[in-house]
Design goal:
This protein folds into two domains: about 260 residues, FAD/NAD(P)-binding domain, CATH 3.50.50; about 210 residues, no CATH class. It has 14 helices and 21 strands. It has about 500 residues and is α+β, with helices and mostly antiparallel strands. Helix 3 packs parallel to helix 14 and helix 5 crosses helix 14. Strand 1, helix 3 and strand 2 form a beta-alpha-beta unit. Helix content is about 35%, strand content about 25%.
């Protein structure tokens, strides 16, 4: 089984057969193998082949190639089929391929790379990554630039409402355009001779002593490598946590983010989204002093469901070529856990599983019904001024899903937002649950994003160091440049 795979790799890349050089036709020898074909993995590869043409680089991913990624339930508007792997969150481009593609050009949001890089260097890398996206077809328009007076007005209003607005220029790709950009990147890497192995889950990270030696895939293929970059994405956070335990890598427990996706008429948010596209708002709830934040705002977008390792959760998109009459955004409550509990991913999965148990997937409830202590029904939804864009969501009662602490903080955030965007806290506002972000285990890494195992790097959302496209891409560049420096020293 393995030999034909090796032959195909060599044919596609022009590499010599392993037996000719290494005496074994079952093992591929490369300079760098990247686990994960999301933005972190892609930018790692782009930087490597640009810095050292001829370098042997392989990318492996458990998901499908871009042209084979297809979500039947999303396209046909039916119930989730629980496909494995899920095309919505895995495959070429990672979860970003199906996202609406927002490039947030600020170091203040989208990750924790400011803990690894000096502020000036992080800003330079964000600008570098942004230029790269432009080179591959991103639009020129940036929201939030050259709107100083309007932005200042919104900031004043936010302050008076106990909200903090984080100014963050945004370049919006749009779901359809995102796929074209990812396809262009893939073509560039193919021309550079990068081996891209899709539908190839990794079973083992091979380590000899204190140095990484490569990976072994579930299909039996062994890829020996001088350097390994782990970039499994948010969907691979649990897998990476297992790898960390097997390799005895220390991890820090990040806050777990759990909440709802809010859907309102687009007109309610229009005065904000026309200026800054995505309003990054932070709020400390008065009752419990928990941090609540907006995330992934989609003007004129639609609410969608996604499969997270068997759990049906909710997300949102905005397209480059079509509009709805609604705007949606997530409200996420961040919660830190202390001893003895150290399984935030399991906690997030448990909360999301309650919605799946009660509604068979995503639940939707009118805010008015929630505040009145009653469940939403199809009849009550029919009376709502907001028509749900995720029609297959099950009307229900989110108070049976969320802990009171989370639900109270979400309601208080909506009431605060209503002061700067009247209508957000309307009784007709729709709340979908559960939205949860699985990036809770952060590996202990050096400033170059290297683990304690030599030449083993971890980047992107799955490693817990980023939370968005831009910083995930930056993390790939950081790891690639470290590898290039190391190889240059070794060859000197």
């Amino acid at each position: 089984m393995v030999v034909p795979i090796v032959a195909e790799i060599c044919h596609n890349t022009g590499w010599p057969r392993p037996a000719e050089k290494y005496g074994d036709d079952r093992v591929v020898k490369v300079d760098v193998v990247i686990v994960g074909a999301g933005p972190a993995g892609i930018f790692t590869a782009l930087e490597l082949v640009q810095g050292a043409p001829g370098l042997r680089v392989a990318i492996v991913d458990k998901g499908y190639d871009l042209d084979k990624r297809y979500c039947y339930s999303q396209e046909k508007k039916t119930a989730c089929r629980h496909c494995q792997p899920c095309s919505t969150v895995s495959g070429w481009g990672g979860a970003g391929a199906y996202s609406d593609g927002k490039l947030t050009l600020s170091p203040e949001v989208g990750g924790m790379l400011d803990q690894y890089l000096p502020p000036g260097e992080l800003l330079e890398l964000i600008a570098y990554v942004d230029r790269t996206y432009l080179d591959f077809g991103a639009p020129r328009q940036v929201y939030g630039e050259d709107r100083g007076e309007e932005l200042a007005k919104i900031q004043r209003q936010a302050t008076l409402a106990d909200l903090k607005l984080v100014p963050a220029p945004v370049r919006h790709l749009g779901t359809g355009r995102t796929k074209e950009i990812l396809r262009n990147m893939q073509q560039r890497l193919a021309v550079a001779g990068v081996a891209m192995l899709m539908e190839a889950p990794v079973a083992e990270i091979m380590v000899a002593g204190d140095r990484v030696g490569g990976v072994r895939c579930e299909n039996g293929l062994e890829i020996a490598a001088d350097c390994v970059v782990l970039a499994p994405g948010r969907e691979g956070a649990e897998w990476l946590a297992q790898v960390a335990r097997q390799l005895h890598l220390r991890t820090a427990v990040n806050p777990v983010d759990i909440g709802v996706r809010v859907e309102v008429p687009a007109a309610v948010m229009e005065h904000l989204t026309q200026v800054i596209y995505e309003a990054k708002l932070l709020f400390d709830s008065p009752t419990f002093d928990d941090r609540v934040r907006t995330f992934c705002m989609n003007p004129y977008g639609e609410v969608v469901q996604e499969n997270n390792n068997g759990l049906i959760t909710v997300n949102g998109h905005a397209y480059a070529d079509k509009r709805t009459s609604n705007t949606n955004f997530a409200l996420l409550v961040s919660k830190n856990f202390t001893r003895p509990f150290h399984e935030p991913i399991a906690y997030g999965r448990y909360v999301a599983s309650l919605a799946n148990l009660l509604g068979g997937g995503v639940l939707v409830q009118r805010l008015g019904d929630l505040l009145s202590g009653r469940r939403s029904t199809p009849e009550r939804l029919e009376k709502s001024l907001v028509r749900p864009t995720l029609a297959k969501a099950t009307p229900g009662d989110l108070s049976l899903v969320f802990p009171y602490r989370h639900l109270r903080s979400i309601i208080e955030m909506l009431q605060a937002m209503d002061k700067i965007a009247p209508g957000v806290a309307s009784r007709h506002t729709l709340l979908y649950g559960v939205e949860v972000k699985f990036y809770s285990s952060r590996l202990e890494l050096s400033e170059e994003l290297e683990t304690k195992i030599a030449n083993l790097y971890a980047v992107g959302d799955g490693a817990g160091v980023t939370r968005g496209l831009v910083q995930a891409s930056v993390s790939g560049v950081v790891a690639a440049r470290s590898i290039l420096r190391r190889m240059a020293r070794a060859g000197a």
